Amino acid sequence: MPELPFPLPPLPTAPQVVFIMIAVLAVIGSLTVVLARNLFHSALGLVAAFFGAAGVYIVAEAEFIGVSQVLVYVGAISTLITFAIMLTRGMMFGATSPRNRQSGTAAIITALTFVVLVALMRGIPWPQAGEPITDGQAIIAGLGFAFVNQYVIPFLLLAMLLLVALAGAIMLARDRK
Amino acid sequence: MNWSDALIQLQYNLGAPQELSWLVEGITYFIGAFVIANAALVLALLLIWITRKVVSRIQDRIGPNRLGPYGLFQTVADAMKLLSKEDIKPTSADTPSYLIAPVLSVMGVLMALAVIPFGAGLIGADLNVGVLYLVALGSIGIMAALMAGWGSNNKYALLAGFRVVAQLLSYEIPMVLAMFAPVLLVGTMRMQELSQAQSLYLGPINLGLGWFIFLLPGAFLIYFIAALAESEQTPFDLLEAESELIAGFHIEYSGMKFAMFFLAQFLNSFFLGAIAVALFLGGWQGPFAGQVPLLGPIYFLAKTFFIYVVIQWIKGTFPRVRIDQMMQFAWKVLVPLVLALILAQMIIMKLPLPGWINSLLVLVANIAVVLAVLNIMGNYFKREQVRSKRAFAPKSLIGTMQPVNSSAGD
């Protein structure tokens, strides 16, 4: 075998390949959200981005959060957004573009945020490998236990917040006699 | 012993080198996925045949009986016809969502197969969030229907899309909470452990009859009703009400794309039945399933087909509900009922009592809560009916006039 003038990069491992595929899905989805001419396509791109995020969680061996991500974000929030778009926009009369003249400003701010985030992340000493997780069951049980013991007050406050939001929505939407 | 471990061992025994373990594992999981997905697609042919036979018997017809024994190949011929049809796309349809929607609808249904326990070691992937995974998959179906309804650029399809969201999201809540009842009882979301927990030991022999339906009949009933709505079966098939919406969100689809939606719907009702079997009807448990492992898949499939035939029986006998009745039923009957059931079960399970008294109390509480809530809601709806009749009483003479006796004229 002839000697190469430069060392070959190491072959990506299977989790890395899966991560790259998921990341590409998430990035394409996010770009669709911002750049699509059609608002409905933006909503669909958002769904793809949420799936990508769920995939990242699953690659990181956090199945519970990944599945919850699909359940909450894809199942509820995206459906709500899509539904709102379908109800409020004149869907039958051609595409409506969500773009306006502020896209240049938004691009600059996004680029600055990216730079700051990269600078922050480079400063953090990331652990190279965590403890291998033997049983996912323990994580879910631990999560549930923490919710009703250590974090019971924040948990109840969150529930209260959701209830208030629900009651407020009903107050706004009910027909006034 | 898991099926994948057995298959990997078999490959090593046949002489596969240990260094190629990634290839061996890849082949194993590919075989598993290939078999399971294709078996489901072939199964759909059988399911459509069962539906047609059962419904025609109910309607005093014979049903398909020309092609093959008992007309078994009728569906194959229909599939061939659909495959050979022209692929039509409406000019003003939104191309990406129009094309992706049928694929997505079948994908969401097929993914459920991964966590269905067919036998003691026969499960695609025993996720530790199995039940939650099944719940999350429902959202893919909703997205597919929305995309189809919107992408077709047809007002009936769009109306059906609105109905899809309303119906599927509303019935998801009682369904998920009803699935929560057995999870609470066992304390795990693994499908395989849920099936294993439904055994009943008489001495050393596993009778396999400790099904959760005997402990949680109320939860099973709620799950079954909500599953009917989730799989768009007859009392709740408003999404494709032919007389109102022509064919619902797949009105603009033809040929194989239409067949994909059809396939997804049949498979979905079968899989929701399979989940009902795994959670409430003992899964692969049954008499002597512990001694003869081959009996497990047979029991599982027999129970699932039984549920499927019951669904078709309902399809042949029940009229379709109105959309306001359907939403009221979900939010005013099923949700309070299932919340009361879960609350009662949680309180009883925390009581410091011996196991069998606890189980008995769960059963008693289940029946009592169902009866009490149904009684309260029944009284409420009786009053409501009188009230709404008064509210909608005709103010003018139109509509109050009696039909003229026609025998006077001629």
Tell me, what's the shape of chain A? Answer: extended
Q: List unreliable stretches of 5+ residues of chain A.
A: none
Compute the number of helices of chain A. Answer: 6
SS elements, strand count of chain A? 0
Q: Which percent band covers the strand fraction of chain A?
A: under 5%
- Secondary-structure class of chain B: mainly alpha
Average pLDDT of chain A works out at 81
Q: How many beta-strand segments of chain B? A: 2
The shape of chain B, in one word, is globular
Question: How many domain units of chain A?
Answer: 2
Number of helices of chain B: 13
CATH fold title of the largest domain in chain A = Four Helix Bundle (Hemerythrin (Met), subunit A)
Task: State the gist of this model.
Chain A is an all-alpha fold and 177 residues long. Chain A has helices at 14-35, 39-59, 63-88, 103-123, 136-148, 152-173.
Write up what this structure looks like.
The complex is a heterodimer of chains A (about 180) and B (about 400). By secondary structure, chain A is mainly alpha-helical. Chain A has two domains: about 80 residues, NADH-ubiquinone/plastoquinone oxidoreductase chain 6, subunit NuoJ (Four Helix Bundle (Hemerythrin (Met), subunit A), Up-down Bundle); about 45 residues. Helices cover about 70% and strands about 0% of the residues of chain A. Chain A is built from six helices and no strands. Chain A is extended, with a radius of gyration of 22 Å. Chain A starts with 13 loop residues before the first helix and ends with a helix. In chain A, about 20% of the residues are buried. The model of chain A has no long low-confidence stretch (mean pLDDT about 80). Chain B is an all-alpha fold. Chain B folds into two domains: about 70 residues; about 230 residues, no CATH class. Chain B has 13 helices and two strands. In chain B, strands 1-2 form a two-stranded antiparallel sheet. In chain B, helix 2 packs across helix 10, helix 2 packs parallel to helix 11 and helix 12 packs antiparallel against helix 13. The longest helix of chain B has about 40 residues. At the A-B interface, helix 2, helix 3 and helix 5 of A face helix 5 and helix 6 of B.
